[in-house]
Fold this sequence. Notes:
The structure holds two protein chains of two kinds. Chain A has 18 helices and 20 strands. Chain A is α/β, with parallel strands linked by helices. Chain A folds into two domains: about 5-225, P-loop containing nucleotide triphosphate hydrolases (Rossmann fold); about 245-485, Rossmann fold (3-Layer(aba) Sandwich). In chain A, the strands form four sheets. A six-stranded mixed β-sheet of chain A has the order 6-7-8-3-9-10. In chain A, helix 3 packs parallel to helix 5 (about 135-150), helix 4 packs antiparallel against helix 5 (about 135-150) and helix 14 (about 380-390) packs parallel to helix 15 (about 410-425). The relative contact order of chain A is 0.10. Chain B has helices at about 1-15, 20-40, 60-70, 80-90, 125-145, 150-155, 175-205, 205-210, 220-245, 255-280, 285-300, 315-320, 325-340, 345-365; strands spanning about 45-50, 75-80, 95-100, 115-120. Chain B has a four-stranded mixed β-sheet, with helices on both faces. At the A-B interface, helix 2 and helix 3 of A face helix 1 and helix 8 of B.
Amino acid sequence: MQPIVTANHISKRFGKVTALDDASVSVNRGEIFGLIGPDGAGKTTLFRILATLSLADAGEASVAGFDVVRDYREIRRRIGYMPGRFSLYTDLSVEENLQFFATVFNTTVEENYHQIRDIYVQLEPFRHRRAGALSGGMKQKLALCCALIHKPEILFLDEPTTGVDPVSRKEFWQMLRHLREEGITIVVSTPFMDEARRCDRIAFINDGHILDTDVPEAVLLRHKDILCPPGLQHAATGNDSDNIITVDNLVKRFGSFTAVDHISFTVRRGEIFGFLGANGAGKTTAMRILSGLSLPSEGHAEVMGYDVTTQSEEIKRRIGYMSQRFSLYEDLKVWENVRLFAGIYGVPEKEIAPRTEEMLREIGLYDRRDTLVRNLPLGWKQRLAFSVAIFHRPQLVFLDEPTGGVDPATRRQFWELIYRAAERGITVFVTTHYMDEAEYCDRISMMVDGRIRALDSPERLKARFQAKDMDEVFLRLAREATRQSD
Amino acid sequence: MKQFLAFVRKEFLHILRDRRTILILIGMPIVQIILFGFAISTEVKDVKTVVVTHSPDADTRYVIDRIDAGEYFTVTHVVHDIREADRLFRRNEADLAVVLPDNFQRHRTEAAGIQIVADATDPNLAIMRTMYVNNVLASARMELQKTLAQPAAAAPQGHVRIEAKLLYNPQMRSAYNFVPGVMGLILMLICAIMTSVSIVREKETGTMELLLVSPIRPMLVIVSKVVPYFTLSILNLTTILLLSVFVLDVPVAGNLMALVGVSLLYILVSLSLGLLISTLTTTQVAAMLASGLVLMIPTIVISGLIFPIESMPWPLQAFSCIIPARWYIEIVRRLMIEGVPFAYVWKEALVLVAMAVLLIGIATRKFKNRLD
């Protein structure tokens, strides 16, 4: 079969950093081709070179039979491209975005409506809403519509489902299968292994090298130590009698919108508590209230015996917090960041130096203590941010999607750190999108539309829903909720 | 054409939906015109004056009254010792001191040494004040000499009477000086900031990536960015002219059409500067800083807005030639304040045309077809 996309010995450097090194791939017409690899592996660079946005330093590539350098105009007419981050006009409505991109490609929404109908029917109820106000899943569907409106031969999708909840991810992939049946070739990158399995073939890319290209099962098997690490063993440490967080009928409203709707639960001292939910389910809002950053509209919550409404300062002093946005100073060195946050949290002056050394040795960063944080790989930054968040030895630490954008092996290393913290008696309250991580928790709560739908240990939840893994539990719950809210 | 209209429509939607943009676009000209027009003033008014004298005779009293009479000076203290005046200067209770000689009355006929001491922290202001007080003193002495009973002896022979006539701005109102400058400043800032930020925002949010991957021509992206802001700038120009005529009382002395034409030309130059900045920066903050600070400082300091270009050292004079505001302000002063016909300023206008062509040329060449 004639390949529709080929890249031969592509290399690309940005200053000292080698983004791609002698990378070659070829994609067959009509297949879904997956690019699998951690953040910074070179996936985005490869996409940009193929989409004619970036010039390679060496090597050549062709798309739909045209050279990416010489015939870039021809290629631009024939491809649909979705960049890694959401790149539509957030201040334009759904309809306005779609019409604009249709006009840019010299076509109209009406002309190619059949192309996007299946996806667009889901967006139709929100067509006057601003794109910026859509949920994560809806945004990605709109972006896909905009990329499809001119009937491209090939779709380049750069991590289209990052930050999207499992239900929306499933739907998104059903759409991709459907497009494939219509003969569109799809090149897609993803950090999720379940999505990798849905491709026809995948290429595993790491550090700018393409390490393997084959059908998904073969690649995942050959590189299972990185892509499918074995699960972690952990003895449940929760103590039934002692609750560190007590939440009673907590409500948070933003105008007429109820983000958190009468939730009640308790977290036991010493346990790892997973706080799960779809995008916009209210996880981050609830977590902000519990960590003293935001006030509840109604209800009562106590953290370590302090009331979140009246004693938020006491709470803030005694907890650790790591947000989904990486929260260290990129332009400070590793040890300078540690020193800074130790000072902010009032760690005694004498203890800072020995504790810093101990901590950096533990996470393997001691030799790189003089490196600017900016130059660390994302996985290391995350481990450092976590260690900094618990440096002042809090009883409780809040982690808001701490492992976004890294490969499974790196995420597993992060969880080893969480377990070590738990062994020291620190209670861990963590939100995540990754269902394999949910299984690492002692207990999890599933939040849907502002309410807690289920709360139990992973084993008992799986038994209750007769599901083989947490992914399935989540899907059942979320589907149920969507039906109820309609 | 359809693509172009879709672009322009989209651009207007961006502007209309962003309250901050609207506020800057509409609010900034009004605030600046009023600030510069009223607050910054080099007019001499109510200057706190100390008179130092040892002999409080009738002549001294007469001179003090004359100084105090107009609205220019207010005699706040009459002291006997120059050291006392010095103390008042230090406590910021005096801006100007007039030191009269001992036995002032006896010196009536001779050239008596009167000393004027001025606080020169602001040199321009100090010079103006000494000039004014000099005039007051001179006329007061003339009056005094007339009252002497020796008309023949007193009238100086062959005396030449010098009379100064102030053209175009007889009342010496500083608004006449500032309005053209402020026009140059505001139009430059708004056009450059708005275009550069709106393009760089698309780079930042990633939409530029999508536009590049479309078959659309870069030139179209650029032109469709310029059109909405050009329209808005015309609105701004109207606001500024209305404000200066009806609020600041600065009339348009010359041909209004010529003034508007030159202003549109200047707006085009500013927009293309914004385009150029947008090709050189990648973040909105950088674009804002580049167009806000890097453009603003030379436009204020060496365009002739505040300090006259003629009195600058030659390197700065040479540098001022590449600042569009310098030429625009010059033209506006002549067209609007002096009221000369357009034929007198065609050379300056030609410089602006050349700048526009050059800047648009560089900006379109620099506008990249790819990300790197």
